[in-house]
Amino acid sequence: MDTNLEKKVLSYSGFKLEFSEDLVPLEFLGMRHIKFLKKVSSPRHGYPRAWKEISKESKGANGKDRID
User: Fold this and answer.
1) pLDDT band at 51 (very low <50, low <70, confident <90, very high)
2) Theoretical Cys-Cys bridge with 15: which of 30, 32, 37, 66, CB 3.0 to 4.6 Å?
3) Where are the domains of the chain?
4) Averaged over 35-45, what is the pLDDT?
5) Can you list the alpha helix ranges (DSSP code H) found in 14-67?
6) Burial 18-49 (b: 16+ CB within 10 A, else e)
7) What is this structure's pTM?
């Protein structure tokens, strides 16, 4: 995962990554780790957007108009 993106998402949520611990015994399941977060502020509030914009982004990402 991109560390800059991770920091950005966590900061918007009001958290900071303290440290990460790898779980070696569970590596057979894929990459496994625990992240310890520290609450540093209140979450930032999002900005209101028109449903038309949200719908367009959703369709562009998913490639369809509805869930089958």
Assistant:
1) confident
2) 37
3) 3-62
4) 89
5) 51-62
6) eeeeeeeeeeeeeeeeeeeeeeeeeeeeeeee
7) 0.53
